[in-house]
Design a protein that fits this description.
By secondary structure, the protein is of the alpha+beta class. Strands 6-5-4-3-2-1-11-10-9-8-7 form an eleven-stranded antiparallel β-sheet. It is globular, with a radius of gyration of 19 Å.
Length: 195
């Protein structure tokens, strides 16, 4: 009985110390001078899973929290661990994307998809997400197998190599997004849940 209490206390102490070491929550905020049509602020959780067909198992898994702010063609995305430790900030503008990690390391690329692929080693369609998070299709890309709900909102489609499902719409867009990319040797799945 005493050992169980000690083990439980040790577990609580470890969790508390990890929480104390974490950095504050992301601090990006919407601009009150802009209207709802000009910006979108979303908080939520994400999970990335890479399944390798050759060895028939998952080879990579990343999960955490995010804060997304889009204002016109500019996006700021804060990524944090499940415990709330800020890991990185991604900033996107026309023809430019940059990431600043919590350790101060700075990376840049010409577009957000290339930047995230460089960092994670696997693609995540940040370029597509800037439209899909609003419940819209990307311009200049073909839209295949599109399905819409009774309100004519997109719910399922394929675009830019991704199979996309959008669910649980609120006034700003879908609150659940599921993205799957099938490649010859692997399947990449991204799940996003908006708080």
């Amino acid at each position: 009985m005493m050992m169980k209490r000690l083990a439980k206390f040790a577990m609580v102490a470890v969790v508390a110390s990890l929480a104390a070491c974490s950095t504050p929550s992301p601090t990006i905020h919407a601009d009150p001078s802009l209207g709802q049509d000009e910006q979108l602020l979303r908080d939520g959780r994400f999970a990335l899973l890479v399944y390798d067909r050759a060895i028939e198992r998952n080879t990579d898994s990343v999960q955490g929290n995010f804060r997304w702010l889009s204002q016109g063609q500019r996006i700021t995305l804060d990524l944090s661990s499940p415990l709330g430790q800020v890991l990185a900030r991604v900033e996107v503008g026309p023809g430019h994307a940059s990431m600043t990690r919590s350790n101060g390391e700075y990376l840049e690329a010409t577009n957000p998809d290339a930047l995230v692929a460089q960092v994670l080693g696997n693609p995540i369609p940040v370029n597509g997400l800037q439209y899909w998070i609003h419940g819209k299709a990307m311009p200049n890309y073909s839209l295949e197998q599109a399905e819409r709900d009774e309100q004519q909102r997109l719910v399922r489609f394929q675009q830019a190599g991704w199979r996309v499902s959008l669910e649980a719409y609120d006034a700003h867009g879908p609150k659940r997004l599921s993205l799957v990319r099938q490649e010859s040797n692997q399947r990449i799945s991204v799940r996003i849940s908006i708080d």
